[in-house]
Amino acid sequence: MTLETSTAPAAEPAATAPSRAPRWIKPALGLIVPLVVGIGWEIAVARGWSNGRLVPPPSKIYEMLAQLAKSGELSRHVFITTWRVGAGFGLGVVSGTLLGALCGYSPLARRLLDPTLQALRAIPSIAWVPLFVLWLGIFEMSKVALIAIGVFFPIYVGVMGAVLSVDRKIVEVGRIFRLSGPAMIRRILLPAVLPSYVVSLRQGLGLGWMFVVAAELMGASEGLGYLLIDGQQLGKPAEILAAIIVFALLGKTTDWLVQLAFAPLLRWQDAFSSQAGRA
Q1: Which segments of 165-263 does DSSP mark as H helices, in order?
Q2: What's the CA gap between 97 and 118, in Å, rounded?
Q3: Which stretches make up the ABC transmembrane type-1 domain (predicted)?
């Protein structure tokens, strides 16, 4: 009598969840390109392939940053520029949000105000400089006003467009449930508008950092824009590049802070980007 062996496959071990990479890996990937470019340029100058006079290597830029930091100039310029951008950003966000929501919600307000605002949006930033100097002088108010102008328009256009693009069907659902005006805004309009609003905030913040350079051309004796002009006039490209790098770091940091602040309010999104980010 023979024993029959079971042909059933052995039980496979339970599938283990894929190991997730450390959280610092994804942000660190963004450093690869600037590090490769910087190291490559440092090697090129060290080997004599370029004299590095007009575009200094990273070592010279680091020396300039260390010199400015040691003298206290760097912190002073960073503080005053950040304050100007913060004040202008605040004014631009408040006015852009209110007018954008009004023009998006009210057809009458849109017909009255939007054509004029769209025409003003086409005016170059530098064209406002002489007018603000004449109206507000060369002190802080004119600089903050110019930055606020740069921030205002992307916020205004983004908010108005987001309100206009709200799906009509979900508004009808709110009306079926007899939501009041404030409840309709809080439970229907705000969640629908918020993703586009965050994008508008980031765009406005980026323009705020760009407009601060034009603002600091108006008789400024402090700020990173002043460092740019000072480096140009004295023929110090390392100082110019140092100021540009600080601008880039500040801009990226503030953009990240905006994303971080609104991330809890956008957790409900089931978008492709959120699924890809968790992969």
Answers
A1: 168-176, 181-184, 190-215, 224-233, 237-262
A2: 15
A3: 74-258
Q: What is the pTM of this model?
A: 0.81
Pick the closest to residue 194 from 255, 256, 262, 261 (CA basis): 262
pLDDT digits 0-9 by tens, 99-140: 998 998 889 999 999 999 999 998 887 788 888 888 887 788
CA dist., res. 243 & res. 212, Å (int): 13
Packing angle, helices 237-262 and 58-71, rounded to 10: 80
Under CATH, which architecture does the 78-247 domain have?
Orthogonal Bundle (1.10)
Half-sphere exposure of 105 (CA within 13 A, CB side): 15
Amino acid identity, position 36: V
Cα 14 to the chain's mean position, in Å?
A: 44
Q: How confident is the model at residue 23 (pLDDT cuts 50, 70, 90)?
A: low
What radius of gyration do the chain's Cα atoms show? 26
Neighbour tally for 196: CB within 10 Å: 16
The domain segmentation of the chain, as residue ranges, is 78-247
Q: Which residues contact 170 (CB under 8 A, 6 or more apart)?
A: 188, 192
Average pLDDT over residues 161-185: 77
Amino acid at the residue 266: L
Q: CA 122, CA 38: separation in Å to the nearest integer?
A: 37
Burial class (CB in 10 A: 0-12, 13-18, 19+), 185: middle
Model pLDDT, residue 7: 46
Tell me 270's DSSP state.
-
Quote the tokens at residue 262: 């609104």
- How far does the chain reach from its first CA to its final CA, in angstroms? 55
